[in-house]
Design a protein that fits this description.
Elements: H1 2-9, H2 18-46, H3 73-87, H4 93-119, H5 127-147, E1 153-156, E2 159-165, H6 170-188, H7 196-213, H8 216-222, H9 233-251, H10 260-277, H11 283-287, H12 289-308, H13 318-324, H14 329-349
Antiparallel strand pairs: 1-2
Helix pairs in contact: 2-3, 2-9, 3-4, 3-9, 3-10, 4-5, 4-10, 5-6, 6-10, 6-12, 7-9, 7-10, 7-14
Length: 354
């Protein structure tokens, strides 16, 4: 709205620049989350909403977190939505695609969180229903992209000339990327501040990538697929980073509030969707390496136990394995953040090394 009012109507030229609007989105989102998160926490307590239930099979140390307010991701999502409506070009179809996925996954996350806190049961929404909703939303997006002529090829980091056209297989590939990223982020959200750190580093990396992908000269110089219009997504990603910083103020160890599935599922869905829209899906494996390892640790644990009756890790996801090895929670969190920062930087170097 600000963009259309001040640039399109009054022709204030500075609002034409995505970098300036990204900065505005960053400041707005950070201040909003920092201001309204404690209000949200106090409101939950005042109306008698019970906090996060703890899984019985989880680490015993986590029982001390029983009752910590959850669904803090709602404030981040509201801030991001308002930021997008204020500072994005609202005629841009890619902006609306990201918003729809974010809200659809946030609705699922809210339902899951609500069932958990009202019934004080860590089960929440059934896994089948979750996946059905997630895949359904991703399927719709994949079909829209495919039938509107969006590039259906697959690009690879470090290789400029390699471009594999997936054809209609692009649709299920989109579904796997978005749903996989959403659930991987959700699995990572198990310690105070653990998930939000990598979310911010991946968002920062893809903020740069979306900007250069949407810029004709930069994309040509770097030898990447140029997608006109996706530069607007850098504004949303700036909002993700700012929302993460504001949330981390209250989520850092020991957490005053948890993100909940409303935050983890939706933010993961946003990152997966943007990776698809900027044609850097495979790069997400590098940039979001922490999420990949967390998800793989669960898959390996489950199938190892089914096939051999033995567990590879003391507990999955892998951050619990390190907890049971005696690592302090802050040490695990900060080391995962460090790895995530390094992976984000490596992912950006692939733009040039082609």
């Amino acid at each position: 709205m600000v963009y259309h009012l001040l640039y399109s109507l009054f022709e204030i030229n500075i609002f034409r620049y995505q970098t300036f609007r990204a900065a505005l989105a960053f400041v707005f989102t950070f201040v909003f989350v920092l201001t309204f998160q404690p209000i949200f926490i106090n409101r939950l307590k005042r109306i008698g909403i019970k906090g996060q239930p703890i899984r019985e099979e989880g680490p015993k140390d986590h029982y001390s977190k029983q009752g910590t307010p959850t669904m803090g991701g709602m404030v981040v999502i509201v801030a991001m939505l308002l930021s997008a409506l204020l500072f994005n070009e609202l005629t841009n179809i890619y902006v609306w695609m990201v918003i729809v996925v974010m809200l659809a996954y946030a609705a699922l996350g809210f339902l899951d969180d609500w069932k958990k806190v009202t019934k004080q049961d860590s089960g929440g929404v059934s896994g089948k229903l979750k996946l059905a909703w997630q895949f359904g939303v991703a399927l719709l997006l994949g079909l829209i992209l495919y039938f509107t002529g969006f590039p259906s090829g697959l690009t690879f980091p470090f290789f400029k000339e390699v471009f594999v056209d997936l054809g209609f297989w692009f649709v299920p590939f989109v579904m796997i990327v978005i749903v996989g990223c959403s659930n991987a982020v959700n699995l990572t959200d198990g310690l105070d501040g653990l998930a939000i750190g990598p979310i911010m580093t991946v968002a920062a990396a893809y903020g740069v990538i979306s900007y250069v992908t949407g810029h004709a000269e930069f994309s040509h110089y770097l030898g990447i697929v140029g997608i006109p219009g996706v530069g607007e997504l850098s504004i949303i990603l700036a909002s993700v980073v700012a929302g993460g910083l504001g949330f981390l103020w209250y989520n850092t160890f020991p957490a005053q509030v948890f993100m909940g599935d409303i935050g983890a599922l939706s933010l993961g869905g946003v990152l997966g969707t943007i990776a698809v829209l900027v044609k850097q899906e495979v790069l997400l494996v590098i940039a979001g390496g922490i999420f990949v390892v967390e998800a793989l640790s669960v898959i390996i644990q489950v199938y190892s136990f089914k096939l051999t009756g033995k567990r590879v890790f003391r507990m999955a996801p892998i951050h619990h394995h390190f907890e049971l090895m005696g690592w302090a929670e802050p040490k695990i969190i900060v080391r995962f953040w460090i790895i995530s920062i390094v992976l984000a930087i490596v992912s950006l170097t692939t733009l040039k090394i082609r």
